[in-house]
Specification:
The complex is a heterodimer of chains A (372) and B (92).
Chain A lengths: L1 H5 L3 H14 L6 E7 H10 L9 E8 L7 H11 L4 E5 L13 H6 L3 E4 L3 H10 L4 E8 L4 H13 L5 E7 L3 H9 L7 E4 L1 H7 L6 H6 L3 E3 L4 H17 L4 E3 L11 H10 E3 L2 E4 L3 E4 L3 E3 L8 H4 L15 H5 L31 H8 L4 H6 L1
Helix pairs in contact in A: 2-11, 3-15, 7-12
Chain B lengths: L4 E10 L4 E6 L2 E6 L15 E5 L2 E6 L1 H14 L1 H11 L5
Antiparallel strand pairs in B: 1-2, 1-4, 2-3, 4-5
Classes of the chains: A alpha/beta (372), B alpha+beta (92).
The structure holds iron/sulfur cluster.
């Protein structure tokens, strides 16, 4: 793994940046989307875009699992959390996501038993330790996280844990990408593919992007130099007139994904006909729910949930941010009414969210900086 | 919750439930290694893995684990937060 050392090498960074410069056609504007919030984070933290020529623009995609949870799902979660006897568990990032009437953290302050867990297996442990209580796990995440929920549910069923259930908000990565590619709002030239999601799904699910839309995809790691390499590989494909899925992150991502994880997903979950995404609206076959075999562990069947669709707050432009139509700082409430301490939109909550990443690293788009 | 952090497997502690004790930045906790099961054998003591929400999601070599840890350490607050959440975990 000689090259990993070199990833910290500024010399190599400069060399890749020079190669990028050589690969772009002057006068052509390139829009590349980094799908994953982890990449957004790396780009802002390390100033990857400072190394790019002016005509290569990075836009942020929908790959932050916290950012895409709509208000109505938070409200449904809070409704379950307020049921007598319920212990409601979720990842720490979810606690501050605003619903139409406050967040889970506020529900907790008002008396609901809401607990942060590191793992769905911790939620299961809490259920086993509290047999007289109903323990609900609010599951979020893309294919990176969904197998963990699946294995936890398999174990709960095998052990006959009756007081455990899951409110499933897992989502899949391909449908929103297809929706973005079909949207007239955005003209993209290529995609930096998500690293961790691809450890599970592999490279194959992205093949529709070159095949159906004629655009390149490069799956990338999370080092700043991984991202830079991926950009160079995308630009090389565009320059050579090739369109394919390539894997820059072979150190971690196998082409065929993780067969065990995919089997667990297929057993425990099924696709919902539609699922609502914050700011993106309903996308067909984009969300997971528990399969009939796991119905008795489904919190949405065990509890009455309002299931009401709630429009995003007027001021919120998370949808445009998640589609890469605007930059975070172009949202009217960015950094004023909406901050990580008091978020209006979800993109300001998780550190993977584009707005939070911009806010935390004080990075502004080049155009904006030049204007200052 | 979005991070995948490197840890080294110390021992398999619960064979049927596929739980292994891992060491992450000096902290020892249990995680599930069932996603790494394969016909040629699953995760073994000494292996480096990337851990996400209490599950090992991929096996990496020692060099990749070191590089990932350094990257995360440079992230600062988010890695600290993830480690704090891991410390609070009691998977068994
Ligand atoms: S600043 Fe706040 S409301 Fe605006 S897009 Fe970002 S998270 Fe959403």
């Amino acid at each position: 793994m000689r090259f990993v050392d070199e990833f910290r090498d500024a010399e190599l960074g400069r060399a890749v940046a020079t190669e990028i410069l050589g690969a772009v056609e002057p006068g052509r504007h390139y829009k590349l989307m980094e799908v994953c919030g982890g990449h957004t984070h790396a780009i802002y933290k390390y100033g990857v875009d400072d190394l790019l020529p002016e005509n290569v623009e990075l836009v942020h995609g929908p790959g932050c699992p916290v950012c895409v949870i709509p208000m109505g799902r938070v409200d449904d979660g809070i409704a379950i959390a307020r049921e007598p006897g319920v212990i409601f568990t979720c990842f720490g990032d979810m606690l501050r996501v605003p619903g139409s009437d406050g967040s889970l953290l506020e529900a907790k302050a008002a008396g609901a038993d809401v607990r942060m867990v590191y793992s769905p297996l911790d939620a299961l442990r809490i259920a086993k330790a509290n047999p007289a209580r109903e323990v609900v796990f609010f599951a979020i995440g893309f294919e990176t996280t969904a197998p963990s929920t699946a294995l936890t549910l398999k174990r709960a069923r095998a052990e006959g844990v009756r007081n455990f259930s899951c409110m499933c908000n897992h989502v899949t990565i391909v449908p929103p990408l297809r929706a973005l590619l079909d949207s007239p709002d955005l003209r993209l030239d290529g995609f930096i593919g998500p690293g961790h999601v691809s450890t599970v799904v592999g490279a194959r699910p992205f093949e529709f992007i070159p095949a159906d839309y004629g655009k390149p995809v490069v799956i990338a790691g999370f080092e700043p130099l991984d991202v830079l390499h991926a950009i160079r590989m995308l630009l090389a494909q565009l320059a050579e007139g090739r369109r394919a899925v390539e894997n820059q992150y072979t150190r971690v991502v196998p082409w065929e994904g993780n067969v065990r994880a995919l089997e667990a997903l297929a057993e425990v979950f099924e696709l919902r006909p539609h699922f609502e995404w914050r700011g993106l609206g309903f996308i067909s076959q984009s969300g997971l729910r528990l399969s009939d075999a796991y119905a008795e562990l489904d919190a949405e069947r065990r509890f009455a949930v309002p299931g009401v669709r709630v429009a995003d707050p007027k001021a919120c432009q998370c949808g445009e941010v998640l589609k890469g139509v605007i930059k975070p700082w172009e949202c009217k409430v960015f950094g004023t009414a909406c901050t990580p301490e008091r978020p209006i939109g979800t993109c300001m909550v998780s550190s993977e969210g584009a707005c939070a990443a911009y806010y935390n690293f004080g990075r502004f788009q080049r155009g904006e900086r030049a204007a200052l | 919750m979005c991070l995948a952090i490197p840890g080294q497997i110390v021992a398999i502690v619960d064979e049927p439930n596929r739980l292994a004790q891992v060491e992450v930045a000096g902290v020892r906790r249990n995680v599930n290694v069932g996603l790494l099961d394969a016909p040629e054998g699953g995760a073994l003591p000494g292996d480096w893995v990337l851990i996400h929400v209490g599950f090992a999601i991929s096996r990496v070599d020692a060099e990749e684990a070191r590089a990932t840890r350094e990257l995360l350490e440079r992230m600062g607050a988010e890695y600290e937060q993830e480690l704090a959440e891991l410390r609070g975990s009691e998977i068994r």
